[in-house]
Here is the input.
Amino acid sequence: DTEVTQTPKHLVMGMTNKKSLKCEQHMGHRAMYWYKQKAKKPPELMFVYSYEKLSINESVPSRFSPECPNSSLLNLHLHALQPEDSALYLCASSQPRLAGGNTGELFFGEGSRLTVL
Amino acid sequence: SQQGEEDPQALSIQEGENATMNCSYKTSINNLQWYRQNSGRGLVHLILIRSNEREKHSGRLRVTLDTSKKSSSLLITASRAADTASYFCATAPWGGSTLGRLYFGRGTQLTVWP
Here is the structure.
């Protein structure tokens, strides 16, 4: 069982809709991530929050807007999406860095499968 | 692209056989990680190997790392049907500006037949 919970599991939206994906973790992790994964492709990093501050934005279009209200929650607000944005959106969390270094183990949620019509 | 390349893209074996997957990458790394993903599900972390380590074991998993060749391999011994999944390597690059970045390779789809 994953300790990172994502809702909703499935979302269908039109190109003019506004919706949000939610992610919650209670492991005390202070880094949280959004990844996008298309079918049969690897996950692609979108955003990283470290200590509730946005630290990485991988040149993601502004129709995706992340928000980290507190250390346990991460949202991804969606507006005016395109059909090519249909994908599995994965949330992950981790400790911000390994002792002495860098990105450690990520804990992933089960994902939110988004379909844009 | 900083993504790694896994080889082979697909691997089909019988239960009890060993499965070996390879990963090559382009940049200097702090560590390399392997993840598993069942179809349409989230990723599960398997093992992390740091750049100053050459080999690591976890249960039926054995990971090697050759930083001079920028490559890693994942060996699953005595495979089971339940090992059927996609396996991804992921690299954590060096450098302050890259902290928090983890780049995934294209993955190997492993099918284990009973």
Q: What stands out?
A: The two ends of chain A are 31 Å apart (CA to CA).
